Amino acid sequence: MKTYHAEVTRDGKFWFIRVPEIDRSTQALRYKDVPTMTIALIQVVTGLSQDEYDLRVEVRLPDAVRDHLGRAEALREEAARKQSEAAAEARAAVRELLAQGLSQREAGEVLGLSFQRVNQLVKTAT
Questions:
Q1: In a 10 Å sphere around its CB, with 0-12 CB exposed, 13-18 middle and 19+ buried, how is residue 30 labelled?
Q2: What are the two backbone dihedrals, phi and then psi, of residue 103, each rounded to the nearest 5 degrees?
Q3: Which range of residues forms the domain containing residue 70?
Q4: pTM for the model
Q5: pLDDT digits (tens, 9 = 90+) for 93-124
Q6: Fewest 10 Å CB contacts: which of 19, 42, 61, 118?
Q7: With contact defined as beta carbons under 8 Å apart, do 19 and 5 qualify?
Q8: pLDDT digit string (tens) for 9-45?
Q9: CA dist 78 to 2, 87, 88, Å?
Q10: Where are the coiled-coil regions (predicted)?
Q11: DSSP collapsed to 3 states, 13-76
């Protein structure tokens, strides 16, 4: 089955849609209309119905937007690492208190954690 690609960019008030396989373009006022407009263009030019091909929509974002998205992803990865480190430190704190003879309930009260959270930390400590 043939695949057509809709290369989509923002152009002023409109979404500009280019389909390289048929070397034709169209536009849409709203992003949600991009597939409909692309399908209509392909049908007019090729005569194919929608079930006779696959459509891949590829939005080409401005460099500044891609830069922001890249930074956001890096920050999410850093946050995940920091969350993991924080959990490891919490486990270490719980282990220290338990080693000093505190019960899990007491350790939770001292650390401001629920008994259930202390229990989770103990179980993942191994």
A1: exposed
A2: -80, 165
A3: 64-123
A4: 0.68
A5: 999 999 999 999 999 999 999 999 999 998 88
A6: 61
A7: yes
A8: 999 999 999 999 999 999 999 999 999 999 999 999 9
A9: 41, 14, 15
A10: 65-100
A11: CEEEEEECCCCEEEEECCHHHHHHHHHHHHHHHHCCCHHHEEEEEEECCCHHHHHHHHHHHHHH
Place of tokens 């979404």: 15
Are 54 and 87 in the same domain?
Answer: no
Amino acid at position 76, single letter? R
CA angle in degrees (0–180, nearest 5) for 109-112-113: 85
How long, in residues, is the chain? 126
Asked if residue 119 and residue 68 are part of one domain, the reply reads: yes
CA quadruple 66, 72, 78, 84: dihedral sign = negative
Report d(CA 6, CA 51) in Å as an integer: 16
